[in-house]
User: Fold this.
Amino acid sequence: MPWKCSVSAPISRSRKQLAIVRGVPKLQGATVMATDLRASASLVIAGLVAEGETKVDRVYHLDRGYECIEEKLAQLGARIKRVH
Assistant:
């Protein structure tokens, strides 16, 4: 899991198919890379609660499953924008 350090949450594996994520008091914004649809959505949500700025690369994964997600989240009060 190459992005674990960039979101500042310790992640460990106890078995081949099980990852344990230990919560932290706060997340720090970082540049992260989306790898699929669900991971992309998770990174966006983590970025919204993180302190500082989070940049999510390869957001085309989001476009496959969430139409205009940045507009919908902004309507809910999120400070989010798409940079081309």
